[in-house]
Amino acid sequence: MKQSLQNRGFDNLDQAILEALQADGRISVADLARQIHLSQPAVHNRIKRLEREGIIKGYVALLDHEQIGFDLMAFLQITLANHTSEAVEGLLNDVYQRCRVLACHQLTGGADLLLKVVAENRRVLAGLVAELADHETVQRIETSIVLNTGKDTTHLPLD
Fold it and tell me: Which residues, 6+ apart, have CB-to-CB distance to 67 below 8 Å?
C-alpha cells in the first residue's frame, strides 16, 4: 500500500476496497464484503469513511466518446502571454465552463496549460481552438489530435 495511505490510517482492507471499486464502481456492498471477507456493515462504514476523507471523490460511468459522437480527441498545449493571477484565473474560468474540455492541467516547461478535449469533427475542434486563441491571455496553442489510444485508465496503483 502507498505510504501516504498508511500514514493517514488506512489499512490493507481499505486498499482492497479501493481496488475493487476501481475495477467495478457498481459492485454491491454485499459482493464486496464477500470478496474481502468482511461484514457488510464494516465494508459500508469503511466506504463512507473513504468518501468523507476525500479518497473516493465520486462514482461515474466511463463513456466511449466515439460511440456518442465525439469522433476527435485532442490535446491542446497553451502558452500564455500574460501570467498575472487575474489573467490566468480568467482564462481558467473560461476553460472550466467548456463542456468539451475533459481535463485541464497547469504545467511547468514550455506550455503553461494542457487541455484534453473532445469534438464531433475537425470543424468543431477548429472553432474551439479559435475561441481559446482569441482570449487575450493566450499567446500560442499547439494542437495534437489523438490517432489511437493504447491505454486510458482512471485506475490508480495502490500497492
Answer: none
Give the model confidence (pLDDT) of 76-92 as tens digits.
Answer: 999 999 999 999 999 99
Dist. CA 1–CA 159, nearest whole Å:
4
Cell numbers at 87, concatenated:
489573467
Contacts of 70 (CB under 8 A, 6+ apart): 100, 118, 119, 120
Q: Name the residue range of residue 40's domain.
A: 3-52
63 belongs to a structural domain? no
Non-local CB neighbours of 28 within 8 Å, separated by 6+ positions: none
pTM (2 decimals)?
0.88
Is 59 domain-assigned?
Answer: no
For residue 130 the three cell numbers come to 479559435
Helix (H, G, I), strand (E, B) or coil at 30: helix
d(CA 84, CA 80): 10
Cβ burial of 85 (10 Å; 0-12, 13-18, 19+) is exposed
